[in-house]
Amino acid sequence: MFSPSQADVRRYFCAVYAKTRSGQALEALETIASLWIDEHPEYHAALADVDLALAAMQQAEDGKSNPFLHLSMHLSISEQCSIDQPRGIRQAVELLTHRRDSLHLAHHEAMECLGQMLWESQRAGRPPDGAAYIACVQRRATQD
Fold first, then answer.
1. DSSP label of 128
2. Is 32 exposed, middle or buried (0-12, 13-18, 19+ CB in 10 A)?
3. What is the rounded distance in angstroms from the CA atom of residue 51 to the CA atom of residue 20?
């Protein structure tokens, strides 16, 4: 199993952004990442300079959104849906997408559920609860 470091993640997204801007061919996962990067022009400046992105790891980002974490979560949810793992996540996100009439908004809501599941897992020292994650996304898809 591959566990990239925080620096690896920053380098990856900066490299995808650079390749996209220069018109270079992208690998499949890079194409998905570039689509989410396109959805977030507010992050383009952070992605444009890998050295600054790496230096920013040392600074507290109080109150600021972390573009690398945010894009990583988009990419994770995309991958989860592509293989339906945990089982049922694809249908739950599709239902939420239909309800919100936006894949982007659905991802943002699913991120809340994913973050909650990971926080609870870490806090309790147990494996992530995929069923609770899916149930959270389904609740959001069925609430008014």
1. -
2. middle
3. 18
CB 17 within 8 A of CB 48: yes
Q: Which residues contact 17 (CB under 8 A, 6 or more apart)?
A: 34, 37, 44, 47, 48
Check residue 1 and give its pLDDT. 41
Return the CA Rg of the chain. Answer: 16
- The b-or-e profile of 110-139 (16+ CB within 10 A means b, else e) is bbebbeebeeeeeeeeeeebeeebbebbbe
What DSSP state is assigned to residue 56?
Answer: G
What's 78's DSSP letter? Answer: H
Q: Flag residues of the chain having pLDDT under 50.
A: 1
